[in-house]
Amino acid sequence: MAAEYALRMGDGKRIYLTEEKILSEIEAGSGNAADLGEIPDLSVDEIDKLAQILMMPGKAVSVEHGMEVPVTHDIGTIRLDGDQGNSGVGIPSSRLVGCMMHERAFGADTMELGHIDYSFKPVKPVVANECQAMEVCQQNMIIPLFYGAMPNMGLYYTPDGPFENPGDLMKMFKIDKARESMEHAAEHLTRDTVWVMQKLFASGADGVNFDTTAAAGDADMYGTLCAVEILRTQFPDMYIEMGMAGEMVLGMHGELEYDGVRLAGLWPHEQAPLAAQAGANVFGPVVNTNTSKTSPWNLARAVTFIKAAVEASSIPCHVNMGMGVGGIPMLETPPVDAVTRASKAMVEIAGVDGI
Amino acid sequence: MADIEGLLHEVADAVISCKKEKVLEAVEKAKAEIPPEEIIEKGLSAGMNQVGVLFERGKLFLPHVMIAADAMTAGVKLLEEGMPAGTQEKKLGVIVNGTVEGDVHDIGKSIVSTMLQPAGFEVHDIGRDVPIRSFVEKAKETDADMIGTSALMTTTLQGQREVIELLKEEGLRSRIKVMVGGAPATQAWADKIGADCYAENASEAVAKAKELLL
Ligand code: B12
Fold it and tell me: Which residues, including other chains, have CB under 8 Å from residue A43's CB and lie 6 or more apart?
C-alpha cells in the first residue's frame, strides 16, 4: 500500500492522503484559482515543491535559513483578550500589556493598537481615549505601532447608521437608490477614517492598518482607497497597510471605479496595483479556505492566487494567514501543522514579503 | 428542433443580459412554439443559473442578479397567463431562510434568497441573528416545505443543529426539509446533524432545493 500523509480538510478534520492524491488535489486547486483569476497555474516544479512541504514529516515546519519574512499582526490585541470566536484566547489583559506581549514575547515585527469594536466608525466618540492609549503604548514600545480597524461600511446603513440599507432597497428593486446609499456611505467612511487617523497620527501612531477592506463590497473598497489617497497626501511618511476581507471584491454596487478600474469582481492580483496607486505601503491579499476541500487543494489555490498578486504588486504583499484564509483550515485555533505548512509555502513558493 | 433550442437560448441569453424588455420579447416569441413549463425550466431558469455562476466568478454583480431575477419573474408571469387554471402561480415550494442566532453575517444568505425566488420558490427571508424558535414558527405559519439556515462562524454552526432538533421535538421533521449553508458548513457537517442537504453557493442551493422539493 502507498504511504499516506496526515493532512486536513478545510474544516480542520484529519485526513490521510497518498502522494498521488496530494498531487492531483494540488493540480485541481491551482487550476481552480487559474480559471477564476485568469492567471497562470503553478508550474510542475512549484507543484512538486508544495507536495514536498505538505509531506514533510515534522508536525511543524519552517522556512529555510535566510528566507525569514516580517510578521505583523492585525485585529489589535483581540487575539489575546477576544472571546468571540475570532481566534482570541480570552485572556483578560490591558491593551498595553497585549501590545508589549506581541512585541517582546511573540516576535511580532510590527503591532497595532485596536479598539474592541475594531471598526473606524465607533472609534469616533472615543478617539481621545484611543489617542491616549496610543501615546502610552508608544512610550513603552520599540517596534512600529500602527492603529488598526475595519472600514466596515455596513455600519453606515440602517439600522446601524444613517443611510437606507441597500440590501432592503435592492429587495424592492430600487437599484439606483441602493447605489446612492452605498456612495453616501463610502463618502462618510472616507471622511471618518481620515478624521480618526489625523488624531492618531498626531498622537504618535507609526501607521494605519485598514483591515478587512471591502467586507461590505466594492463601495467599501472605494471609500477605503479614497481614505488611503487622502492620508498619503496629508502624511507622506506614514505607513499605510491595506488588507482585504475576502479573495474577490463583492459587486454590491457594480459600477464604482478607482483610477479607471471597476472595483467589483477584482481578484487579488488586480487589487494590489490599486492599493499601491492609492498610496498604500503594504497590501494584504486574502484567499478564502473552502471547508469542503482538502488542505492541498486549498493551499495550492491560495498560493496560485497570492503568487500572481505578489508579481503584480509594486508594494510588499503581506498575505493574510489565519482561520479560514491563506489555505489554513477554519478553526478558532488553527492547527500548527497546517499553519506552518501554509506559511512556508506562501514564503517559498508565492514569494510573499511578509505575513 | 434546432429552432426550439434557438428560442430557448434566446430566452436564457436575455436573462443573462439582465434586460427585462429583452426577456419579455424572447418569452413572447418562444410562447407560440414551446410549452410554458419548458420555457421556464430550459430558458428562464437556465439563464438564471448562469447568472448565478457569473456572479460567483465576479463577472456579474448584485444589481445585475436583482435585475435578472426581476426580469425572470416578469417572464414567468407572462407565461402563466397562458397556463391552464390551477397551474398558475404554482410555486415549487415554500422556503424559510435565515441566519442563525448569534450570527449577523447575512450577505451570503441574502444572495441565496435572491436566487431561490426567481427559480420558482416562495421565499420568506427572516433575516439575521434569528432565534432558533423563529425558524420553526415561521415555517409553521407559512406551511413551509423547507428551512434554510446560514451560519458564517464555527461558533454559531451549532444553531443549525438546534433548528433540526426543535423540528423533531415539534414532530415536524418528516414534513420539512432542512438545507444548511455558510462558509464553515460542509457536507460532512450536514450529514452529522441530519440535514437533508448542504450547498456551497447560491446556484448550488437552487439546484439542491429543486432536487429535494420537486
Ligand atoms: C463581511 C464579514 C463580516 C461583516 C458582516 C456583514 C454582513 N451584513 O453580513 C461584519 C463586519 C459585520 C462581520 C462581523 C463579525 N465577524 Co465577520 N466576516 C465577514 C467576512 C469578511 C466575509 C463574509 C461574507 O459576507 N462573505 C461573502 C458571502 C457572499 O459569502 P458567504 O457568506 O460564504 O455565502 C455564500 C455561501 O456560504 C452560501 N451560503 C451562505 N448562506 C447560506 C445559506 C444556505 C441555506 C445555503 C444553502 C447556502 C448559503 O452561499 C453564499 C453565496 O455563494 C468573513 C471572512 C471571509 N472572508 O469569509 C468574516 C468572518 C465570517 N467573520 C468572523 C468574525 C469572528 C466576526 C465577528 C465575531 C468579529 C468581531 N469580533 O466582532 C463579527 C460577528 C458578530 C456576530 N455575532 O455575528 C470570522 C468567523 C470566525 C469563526 N469563528 O468561524 C470570519 C471567518 C473572519 C475570520 N477569519 O476571523 N463580519
Answer: none
For chain B, give every domain's residue range.
4-80, 93-213
In a mutational test of the B interface, the residue from A152, A170, A172 whose CB has the highest number of chain B CBs within 10 Å is A170
For chain A, the distance separating the N- and C-terminal CA atoms, rounded to the nearest angstrom, is 38
pLDDT digit string, tens, across residues A19-41: 999 999 999 999 999 999 999 99
Q: What are phi and psi of B170, to 5 degrees?
A: -85, 5
- CB-CB contact of B76 with B68 (8 Å): no
* Residue A247 CA from chain centroid, whole number: 9
Q: How far apart are CA B39 and CA B63, in angstroms?
A: 24
What is the fold, at CATH topology level, of the domain defined by B4-80? 1.10.1240
Considering only CA atoms, which of B168, B169, B166, B189 is closest in space to residue B179? B189
Sequence-ordered list of residues with C-beta below 8 angstroms from that of B196, at least 6 positions apart, any chain: B146, B177, B178, B179, B190, B212
Edge to edge, what strands does the sheet with A239-244 contain? Answer: A111-113, A145-149, A207-213, A239-244, A282-284
- The tens digit of pLDDT for each residue in A247-300 reads 999 999 999 999 999 999 999 999 999 999 999 999 999 999 999 999 999 999
Count the neighbouring beta carbons within 10 Å of the beta carbon of residue A107. 9
pLDDT in tens, chain B (214 residues): 558 999 999 999 999 999 999 999 999 999 989 988 889 889 998 999 899 899 999 999 999 999 998 899 899 889 888 776 666 556 789 999 999 999 999 889 988 998 898 888 999 999 999 999 999 999 999 999 999 999 999 989 999 999 999 999 999 999 999 999 999 999 999 999 999 999 999 889 999 999 999 8
Tracing cell 460542509 back to the chain, one arrives at B186
Q: How far apart are CA B67 and CA B31, in angstroms?
A: 22
User: Do the domains spanning B4-80 and B93-213 agree at the CATH topology level?
Assistant: no
Q: Which of B63, B153, B187 sits opposite A254 (nearest CB)?
A: B63
Residue with grid cell 416562495, as numbered in its chain = B122
Residue A109 corresponds to which cell in the numbers above? Answer: 515585527
B173 contact partners, CB below 8 Å, separation of at least 6: B164, B167
Q: Which residues line ligand 1 (CB under 6 A)?
A: A 84-86, 150, 152, 154, 212, 215, 245-246, 250, 288, 322-325, 330, 332; B 56, 97, 102-109, 111-112, 148-150, 152-155, 179-184, 199, 201-202, 205
Calpha distance A267→A249 (Å, rounded): 7
Consecutive H or E run containing A7: strand A4-8
B93-213 is a CATH 3.40.50.280 domain? yes
All three cell numbers of A355, joined, read 505575513
The residue to mutate among A75, A168, A212, having the most atoms of ligand 1 within 8 angstroms of its beta carbon, is A212
pLDDT per residue as tens digits for the range A82-122 = 887 667 888 999 999 999 999 999 999 999 999 999 999 99
